[in-house]
Specification:
By secondary structure, the chain is an alpha/beta fold. Helices cover 37% and strands 18% of the residues. The structure holds S-adenosylmethionine. S-adenosylmethionine binds next to helix 5 and strand 4.
């Protein structure tokens, strides 16, 4: 049965029915003496409503959509597991703080597990959950009357407005445990839902406008709440234990070299979020000790087997995914001499992506497409970058510009059929939401430049868990394009591309990439990561014999030329970082 939209157990219903004649004051003091909760009823009308509901046995109320509250209630098994894990690590809290307590399972597990608890503070924005927590605590004490009785406050409050400082000051000499599972929702998701369930200072990392556009300003509400609580209780002795997305624990550690949160002994226990919450996301229990010298790494374990997976974090001011592996390949951490590029972005795949079936183009709406061949190029996606050498493709795309921002009106005169096709489908271009298209020519694309038209490319998929590089050759006598999930460098000659691919796929290079690549990130390979590969250092560890084994027909002169181009002096002289292009211009 539900009262105030909250589940209520038969024993709690019995309790209320048996005490129906009491006043609200008598009820409150009776309940405080049973289970420690202060001001169970805030007004007499709440008591009246409860009694009416219980006696009318009101029907079940359907739960509303709570997407904006990142509502994933922790099951009791998992909250118990977390508390036992803490207890096994000698955590014995006196003060429990659950800042978004939901239906109260963490509070119940704490009551069950810890013997020295003196105060419990729970905060929750959703009133039915506040009731459910109170009913569940009352139920717990009705069934186990001899249990130790802390003072319990369950506040119906917005966590962003709640003054946790008062609690930290009141209990400054006591052992604190901040525990819970904050909302799993990002600020950008909230803005798409039109929700204001956000802190006032939503740009709490002080990102600039561009970062906000590129997504760096996007953050998880759970991250904001974690950081707020860690900071508020930074001078309290105790522990912090939150269920969060893995990206949240990583982000907190990423900021650690700047902000230096006073947390140490930081551990991450990975959970199976599909089993625990029926969501496909990498999530964990983030655990640390408060009021300590800032720790700079996280030890990651499996919560079920307790097996250590890896240690990640800061080493010599560098952020790395696997400290052990990194220490073996640290000398490869530097600066890549060419600029890694992301492939083409158009956000109009229904119209801009084509398939060629028996010489006829079809778009993603399965319509036949009659256009000139001139602006049509082969297109490779992350899923196509599987082999060592790629020289054919499943898809094609229309390349409307040679450079970002170039006017697209020229298509009308030079390629009338292509223009007619694009114009007929103009609504697909007009409805592109991203702000990058605002004020740009109507058929604009992004991720396009001279580099896109280089005949040979060394490329890698950004969205896949593989770290090997492919050589991309021209397809049907034209340079192949990659989509914006891929990264690449373009070359004028095949041999330069082959040598580069060989160097990047060498065991030592691969070990280094794996030591800095975060496998659970949505985009495991990023431009920042690729720009860290020190090609000069790889060359200094490579001899010609090795190359001969990997590249057929390579000549010593090819290798010498390649090295000469990459000497530091050459690199500095070529401020544009595009030495291969320059060389091609001089020799052509
Ligand atoms: C992921 S659930 C976890 C609930 C509970 N901590 C648990 O472990 O079962 C997040 C909870 O945060 C609550 N919540 C969301 N936004 C809130 C806010 N601004 N203030 C307080 N609670 C909030 C939701 O209603 C939901 O109960």
């Amino acid at each position: 049965m539900k009262v105030f939209e909250a589940n209520i157990t038969p024993s709690v219903i019995d309790f209320f029915e048996n005490s129906i004649s009491l006043s609200v004051e008598d009820f409150n003091s009776e309940i405080e003496s049973i289970c420690g909760i202060n001001f169970f009823f805030e007004t007499p009308s709440e008591l009246k409503e409860l009694i009416d509901t219980v006696s009318n046995e009101r029907a079940v109320v359907n739960e509303p959509d709570r997407a904006e509250y990142g509502d994933f209630q922790t099951n009791r098994n998992l909250s118990d597991k977390v508390c036992h894990l803490l207890k096994n690590q000698n955590t014995a809290p006196e003060i429990i703080i659950e800042p978004t307590c939901g239906k109260g399972n963490f509070i119940l597990s704490c009551l069950h597990t810890f013997d020295d608890v003196k105060f419990i503070y729970g905060v929750e924005i959703y009133k039915p959950y506040v009731w459910e927590t109170k009913f569940a605590i009352l139920d717990y004490y009705l069934k186990s009357k001899n249990s130790h009785l802390p003072e319990i406050h369950i506040y119906h409050y917005n966590v962003f407005d709640f003054d946790f400082k008062k609690i930290s000051e009141k209990h400054k000499d006591q052992k604190i445990l901040v525990i819970g599972n904050p909302p799993w929702v990002t600020n950008s998701k909230l803005s798409s839902l039109g929700s204001d369930n956000l802190p006032v200072k939503s740009n709490f990392k002080n990102h600039n406008g561009l970062d906000a556009i590129t997504g760096k300003g996007n953050f998880d509400i759970g991250e904001y709440i974690s950081v707020k609580l860690i900071s508020t209780f930074s001078k309290s002795d105790g522990n912090f234990a939150f269920l969060v997305k893995n990206s949240v624990s990583k982000n907190i550690l990423l900021e650690q070299n700047k902000i230096k949160y006073r947390i140490s002994n930081i551990k991450q226990f990975d959970i199976d979020a599909k089993i625990e919450f029926n969501v496909s996301v990498n999530a964990c229990l983030l655990l640390c000790a408060l009021n300590k010298r800032p720790g700079m790494s996280i030890s990651e374990y499996n919560i079920y087997t307790k097996r250590l997976i890896r240690e990640y974090g800061w080493v010599n001011n560098k952020f790395v995914a696997n400290i052990d592996l990194y220490l073996k390949s640290e000398d490869l951490d530097g600066e890549f001499p060419f600029v890694w590029r992301q492939g083409v972005k158009h956000d109009a795949s229904k119209i801009m992506e084509l398939e060629n079936i028996n010489g006829q183009y079809f778009n993603n709406n399965k319509e036949t497409v009659e256009i000139e061949k001139d602006l049509v190029f082969a297109l490779l996606k992350s899923s196509d970058l599987k082999g060592a050498v790629i020289d054919n493709s499943r898809k094609y795309t229309i390349i409307t510009q040679k450079k970002v921002g170039q006017e697209t009106k020229y298509i009308r005169e030079l390629y009338p059929k292509t223009y007619y096709y694009l114009f007929n489908n103009i609504e697909y271009f007009n409805k592109r939401k991203s702000s990058i298209y605002k004020g740009k020519p109507v058929f604009s694309i992004f991720g396009i430049g001279d580099y896109s038209f280089k005949p040979y490319k060394v490329a890698i998929a950004g969205m896949y868990k593989t770290t090997t590089f492919s050589l991309v050759k021209p397809i049907i006598n034209k340079p192949a394009m990659l989509d914006d999930t891929c990264y690449f460098i373009g070359f004028d000659t095949l041999i330069e591309a082959e040598i580069t691919r060989f160097l990047l796929n060498k065991e030592g290079t691969q070990e280094f990439i794996q030591s800095i690549a975060f496998k659970d990130a949505k985009r495991m390979i990023t431009k920042d990561l690729l720009m860290r590969i020190n090609l000069h250092e790889i060359i200094s560890h490579t001899n010609f014999d090795e190359l001969q084994l990997g590249i057929a027909d390579i000549k010593i002169k090819d290798w010498e030329n390649y090295k000469a181009k990459l000497t530091k002096k050459e690199f500095e002289r070529n401020q544009q970082l595009n030495i291969f292009t320059e060389h091609a211009l001089h020799t052509s």
